[in-house]
Amino acid sequence: MKRKKLLIIFGVLILAAGFWAYQRYLKPNVTSFEGTRYLYVPTGATINQVMDSLRHNKLILNPESFAAMASSMGLDKTIQPGRYQMEPGMSNFKLIRMLRSGRQSPVKLVLNKLRTPQQIIAKLSTQLEPDSTDFARLFQDSIFLKSYQINANQIQVLFMPNTYELYWNTPAQKAVEKIAKSYVAFWNTERKSKAAALGLTTPQVITVASIIEEETNKNDEKPRIASVYLNRYKIGMYLGADPTVKYAVGNFALKRITGEHTGVSSPYNTYLNPGLPPGPICTPSKESIEAVLNPEQTRYLFFCAKEDFSGYHNFATTYAEHQKNAQRYHQALNARKIR
What is the pTM of this model? Predict the structure, then answer.
């Protein structure tokens, strides 16, 4: 009889211990939610800061049990910074193990067309841990720039439109270096040879491509537009590119370029300055870069948007012919009351 009682007591104790362990370690403690939510742990964050974030974002049901277990497992000494994907119903044990191991979820950084270095900085600093000052400082770092044979005006060349996978807490320089791998890989021997044959450096090719990118989204017409700018450049003619004027005045929504705009004093105004602008006016697509490297062989020196607003252009070899094309386009603008 005594033995039976002892077995019962022992069984109750085991059940109690199991229940306690379940409550502390295995019971779901992350709230239920729809969609995807993340916990961001900054570099150097303390366990108290993590707790504040969990509470503030209402990601945890029982903060006390999590805090007790985190303390017993030494999370304050082993927590890893990063961006962690939360799963509804995660237990304390699973959450703490994730934070200790640093098993974070990478950021899928999508870079499309961006115009200014400031736009690039804003994109990077809003999706990664380093702040805008970290990237701004890097973009002016002469040693870093020299490693890619560019200057501060050419920083856009490193950011080819693509989707990049990065960890949220990647330092600024390492993040840009990883992104720049696409740029380095793109410029193989063949493409460098084509650029040299045009008498251009790779940043200069991208600068011309950035103008084309702003001129049209018609990939089939890009090699022809490239021929116009390359023909002008070859004979020392001013590029006279409207997109560079928009960049100079900082208004990319301009529909009509007037003398007021073309007279703006800026090294990017190709109506006033010979040769190429100091650097790209956007991050061009691969199609625009390929158009510069593989231009149509033409004698065209002028082009103007078609009056049907199709997005295509009329091309001309003489200024007189170009004036006729431009007149038709301006008449179409006037008819639509576009100013």
Answer: 0.86
